[in-house]
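ok new one. same drill as before - structure tokens go in, u give me an amino acid for every spot. 143 of them this time. try not to just spam alanines like last time pls lmao
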């Protein structure tokens, strides 16, 4: 489960802009956590564009924030199906962290990144809310 991202804005900006073909200028955050802002690439008026959003959704029925969706079920789950059908995006990042239980209450954090410091791209789905102002939230799709 991806629960922390690394966004090295200086390293990602030029590479992602060149690879995807749209201006991309993320904020650097070397320990990006759910509820924080992240810049993704998605469609706006049928054109690729950078979109600033907040990581995580909080449906009315859920007691906790949902930050990830499973690729195997994202199409069928009521919570994700509409966003998956209409609001997909890519989440450029420099890497992410996973934790492994080392026994007891101790967990070890492991970094996953590209050996050549190339951008990594995760699949995401966006949720658009209109509540006075437009708010865009993100869930990352895990394989």
């Amino acid at each position: 489960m991806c629960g922390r991202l690394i966004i090295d804005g200086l390293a990602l900006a030029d590479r992602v802009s060149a690879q995807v073909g749209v201006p991309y200028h993320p904020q650097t955050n070397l320990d990006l956590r759910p509820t924080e802002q992240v810049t993704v690439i998605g469609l706006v008026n049928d054109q690729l564009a950078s979109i600033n959003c907040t990581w995580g959704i909080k449906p009315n029925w859920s007691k906790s924030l949902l930050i990830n969706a499973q690729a195997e079920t994202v199409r069928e789950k009521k919570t994700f199906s509409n966003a998956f059908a209409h609001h997909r995006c890519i989440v450029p990042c420099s890497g992410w962290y996973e934790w492994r239980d080392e026994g007891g209450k101790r967990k070890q954090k492991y970094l996953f990144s590209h050996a050549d410091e190339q951008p990594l791209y995760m699949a995401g789905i966006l949720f658009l809310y209109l509540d006075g102002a437009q708010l865009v939230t993100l869930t990352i799709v895990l394989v």
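The helical segments are 9-20, 78-86. and btw The mean pLDDT is 91.
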